[in-house]
């Protein structure tokens, strides 16, 4: 797993930047979709790495979800 991605997500969580996490999720999902259509090479390792990064990003995003019944400060995603 990418330590860099863990640090990036931790930074966004620390400053409560949900927008950045949503954008990062969208980007990584796009990368994963593109990798899954690659032919001529085996992108298995890259796909696995992106899936692991997505799990880290999604966990960070979950940390910033507002409690049920509350109004979020910055609800972008």
Give a concise summary.
This protein is an all-alpha fold.
Spell out the blueprint of helices and strands.
Layout: H1 3-14, H2 18-35, H3 44-63
Structure, described:
The protein is mainly alpha-helical and 77 residues long. Helix content is 65%, strand content 0%. It is elongated.
Descriptive keywords:
elongated, 77 residues, mainly alpha, 0% strand, 65% helix
Helix content: 55-70%
Gap from first CA to last CA = 25 Å
Instruction: Please state the CA-atom Rg, rounded to the nearest Å.
Output: 14 Å
Structural class: mainly alpha
Number of helices: 3
The quaternary organization reads as single chain
Which regions have little confidence, pLDDT < 50, spanning 5+ residues? none
What's the β-strand tally? 0
Based on CA inertia axes, which overall geometry fits?
elongated
What's the helix-strand series?
HHH
Average pLDDT rating: 89
How much of the sequence lies in strands comes to under 5%
Major sheet characteristics: none
The domain count comes to 1
